[in-house]
Amino acid sequence: MSMITERPVSDPAGQTPVRAAAEAPAGSRDLRAIVAAYVSLTKPRIVELLLVTTVPAMMLAHGGMPSLWLVAVVLVGGSLAAGAASVLNCYIDRDIDQLMRRTKRRPLPAHTVTPRNALIFGLVLAAVSITLMAAFTNLLAAGLTLAAIVYYDLVYTLWLKRTTAANTFWGGACGAAPVLIGWAAVTGSLSPVAWALFAVVFFWQMPHFYPLAMKYKDDYARAGIPMLPVVASVRRVNAEILLFAWLTVLTSLAPWALGLSPVYGVPTLVVGAIFLVEAHKLAGRARRGEAVKPMRLFHWSTTYLTIVFAVAALDALI
After folding, report:
1. Residue 260: CB atoms within 10 Å
2. Distance between CA 165 and CA 138 in Å, rounded?
3. Quick one: angle between helices 44-62 and 167-187, nearest 10?
């Protein structure tokens, strides 16, 4: 219920008192807060990053720009699917989120949204996304969408994340799935280039996420989550970062070998070299006992992936 406080004021002629609202309805503020809480459950920044890989994959599959209708359907369906996976992730992880400083202000541990409502919201988003993909793309794209949601929430979040230090590796398929979904939506099949781009995103997730896990190592330890930086030495973590950074860059050159032009290949080679330099700098700082500054690599890895897929889109247009 909203409350409006009114006060008497005079009309322009200075004769008849009238009433004016002193403040906006509290209910409108409450509604905005509730909407914001539900939106935050979908983790919009993750949705953005996933869509960065989807559209270029569709453009390469089509050999140019696909129909705007198809792009819109895949963007909406993909956003809803990624949002659904994130909401269900928040529902499953509500017990550990309240133990971590980084996540304790999320809507569920903060009691802004009830677990039941979050579960219903996530399932509705998932159903709508899969229905959209099945109705307006094809069964392969819809099946991959369903598989990505199920794998992320039931296999990764509920099982792998809590039981093995290799959780980031085995969970990497979820983050790379939008590449395959976008490609399948256009062609109804998957080509070697699609799988090569999938591998780029798959390998990229380790040098992208491990620095973040290094920064929040104590949080994960407090929650009992065996992320690699929690259970392994700094030397082991940096070794894996370097291994997967090299695999990411080498794999990113595979689409060039499979037929993409230098428009894709040359910029990818340049940003890949910078990515590797940053990864080696991180390892070097750790080896010398200096401040590691892991977020430098985390942020650069995002820039790297964005550039690689942007030039892939440019290659498709040219």
Report:
1. 20
2. 36
3. 40
Tokens of 73: 């359907």
pLDDT digits (tens, 9 = 90+) for 267-308: 999 999 999 999 999 999 988 888 889 999 999 999 999 999
Which tens digit of pLDDT belongs to each residue from 209-259? 999 999 999 999 999 999 999 999 999 999 999 999 999 999 999 999 999
Per-residue model confidence (pLDDT) at position 51 = 79
pLDDT in tens, 1-53: 333 333 333 444 444 444 444 444 556 668 888 999 999 999 998 777 777 89
- Short-list 84, 92, 96, CA closest to 115: 92
The two tokens of residue 107 are 């809507």
Q: Write the DSSP string, the chain.
A: -----EEEEE-TTS-SEEEEESS--HHHHHHHHHHHHHHHHT-HHHHHHHHHHHHHHHHHHHTS---HHHHHHHHHHHHHHHHHHHHHHHHHTHHHHTT-TTTTTSTTTTTSS-HHHHHHHHHHHHHHHHHHHHHHS-HHHHHHHHHHHHIIIIIIIIIIHHH-TTHHHHHHHHHHHHHHHHHHHHHSS--HHHHHHHHHHHHHHHHHHHHHHHHTHHHHHHHT---HHHHS-HHHHHHHHHHHHHHHHHHHTHHHHTT--HHHHHHHHHHHHHHHHHHHHHHHHHHTT----HHHHHHHHHHHHHHHHHHHHHHHH-
Look at residues 251, 315, 303 and name the one whose alpha carbon lies nearest to residue 52. Answer: 303
CB neighbour class for 238 (10 Å; exposed up to 12, middle 13-18, buried from 19): buried
